[in-house]
Specification:
The chain has 141 residues and is mainly beta. Helix content is 6%, strand content 50%. It contains one helix and eleven strands; from the N terminus they run ββββββαβββββ. It is elongated.
Amino acid sequence: MSADLDPGSTIFFTLTIDGESLGYFNGCEGLSSTVEIEHRQEGGNNGFVWQLPSRVTFSTIRLTRPLTPDTTKVAKWISSITTGVTRPTAQIAALRADGSEVARWGLIDVLPVSWQGPSLDPANPSVATEVLEITHHGFTD
């Protein structure tokens, strides 16, 4: 199978906010949307119920990575919220080990929800990781 078609080689993600890269992440979860459905019963037709789409909701996205110098970019973005909320566009790209792109998702009106820094415990010498959680108002091209 050629490397262009190998879906198992996706190993990291990039996050870009209004064209500025916040670095590479090795975990991404929550790229999803849900369409809420209203059920309407039609009078006189007992064997059928209309299922009508009403609202689309989008889940928050959690990006994880080992601690890197790019952490300062995330901190700067989160700190900028205190001076006024602007909701930029963002892009998350899934990349292969060689840096070639597998897929890309554009996000509208992105806002950081939470950031969790590493637990630094000398008794537990594991990799220091950070978690960034973002919310958005939908997908775009």
